[in-house]
Amino acid sequence: MPIKVKVEFLGGLDVISSSVKEHKVNLPYEEGEATMKEALDYITHHLITDPKDIPVFIEDDTVRAGILVLINDTDWELEGKEEYLVENGDVLTFTSTLHGG
């Protein structure tokens, strides 16, 4: 059974996903089998609409510096970053902290 999560792109980051801020996503993994690394790979290949925008989100196989990552409103660094096991109902929030002006 897929893992159902909500993915949010905030702080202007929604431009990489056709200006859609909130996505309901069914990750094709069983609960307990998908880490954030797998979730990031899925998000990168299924939610980013233009492959040229992938470097805006991913750099050196992780989320680019300047993007705050929250798992259920908690900084992902406190949850184990890429090693966090994604659970059904998780909310994965990506917020750009870099704003033009």
UniProtKB/TrEMBL annotation:
Crosslink site: Glycyl lysine isopeptide (Gly-Lys) (interchain with K-? in acceptor proteins): G101
Biological process (GO), any one: tRNA thio-modification
GO cellular component term of the entry, any: cytosol
Key words of the record: Cytoplasm, Isopeptide bond, tRNA processing, Ubl conjugation pathway
Modified residues (1-thioglycine): G101
Pathways involved: tRNA modification; 5-methoxycarbonylmethyl-2-thiouridine-tRNA biosynthesis
Post-translational modification: C-terminal thiocarboxylation occurs in 2 steps, it is first acyl-adenylated (-COAMP) via the hesA/moeB/thiF part of UBA4, then thiocarboxylated (-COSH) via the rhodanese domain of UBA4.
Localization annotation: Cytoplasm
Transmembrane domains' residue ranges: none
One Pfam family per UniProt: Urm1
Protein's job: Acts as a sulfur carrier required for 2-thiolation of mcm(5)S(2)U at tRNA wobble positions of cytosolic tRNA(Lys), tRNA(Glu) and tRNA(Gln). Serves as sulfur donor in tRNA 2-thiolation reaction by being thiocarboxylated (-COSH) at its C-terminus by the MOCS3 homolog UBA4. The sulfur is then transferred to tRNA to form 2-thiolation of mcm(5)S(2)U. Prior mcm(5) tRNA modification by the elongator complex is required for 2-thiolation. Also acts as a ubiquitin-like protein (UBL) that is covalently conjugated via an isopeptide bond to lysine residues of target proteins such as AHP1.
Family, as annotated: Belongs to the URM1 family.
PANTHER family named in the record: RURM1 PROTEIN
Name by which UniProt lists this protein: Ubiquitin-related modifier 1
Gene: URM1
